[in-house]
Amino acid sequence: MKWTYAKAGVDIDRKSGAIESLVKELKFKRTGKGQSANLKGLFTSLIDFGDDYLTLCTDGVGTKLLVAEELGIWDTVGIDCIAMNVNDTICVGAEPISFVDYIAIDKPDENLTNAIGKGLERGAEMSNMEIVGGEIAVLPDLVKGVDVSGTCLGYVNKKKVITGQEVNEGDLIVSLESSCVHSNGLTLARKVFESAGIGMNDKIPGLKRTVGTELLEPTEIYVKQVLSIINEHKVNGMVNITGGGLRNLLRMRPMRYTINDPVEPAPIFKKIRELGDIDTSEMYQTFNMSMGFIIVASPDEAEAVASENKNAKIVGIAEKGSGVLYEPETVLYEHY
Known about the structure:
It is built from eleven helices and twelve strands. It folds into two domains: 130 residues, CATH 3.30.1330.10; 162 residues, PurM-like C-terminal domain (Phosphoribosyl-aminoimidazole Synthetase, Chain A, domain 2), CATH 3.90.650.10. By secondary structure, the chain is an alpha+beta fold.
């Protein structure tokens, strides 16, 4: 069976339609201090607050929680929850400062929530960000298991905000390597291994650890590294490679983004692709493929970033045109 994300149960095109149907009903606009900036396609909302923008975004861990449940390991998913939010926050050059978590659970379990709390605390420390509140909702008639999500507040000076609209033809695309699958595409990954008769506790050729341990590796937190980079270099655009994979490059200025020297995907991605007989375009629009965060800058600045950071590599170029190419012969996405 040739697997796709849609066959696994997640149709990203239908998801986009669902988002549009919701957003079109959200018409009210605040007046006075605290208005939202009228900028589309960003990873976090910008809220006018004098000389600064406040930023606000929300995200969750997703079905990675099912892997945690099967393995009985809960002390890392809090890191994922933090990472998915702070990595979005920094895309506009903002610094994360505060966080609130939301845990929905079918029945109270002190050991489980304690373990989740350890991961949240570790993620907050790695992000230099304080968790200022949260909610645990006990919903036995609605939730079977546990769901973990959160919301991040950040700020950025208006003169330093990065929207991706300053990307120029000839700018180079720098990838910061991912730590793992991160917290996207787990529905497809789990279905692929399940259909092949491989359990989360199984070890298979090509992987150093069990399948579940590979999938549960925490999402990389890029906060301190990226804030340091933008403090030292002129950056024109930044992208968090989460849901939608390389499609996220299309959030920046309309351009042809060509990935002509990609990072070698980690073994876990190769196994998913092999076992699921998954097309190249499907892999790169579902998973990060070891390219967890993207920085776009002029050639001089990009080369400096790549040389100064061990996990960085120049993987492509911004060109005249539209869409995303993976190597010259494979068009991944043609439309915005």
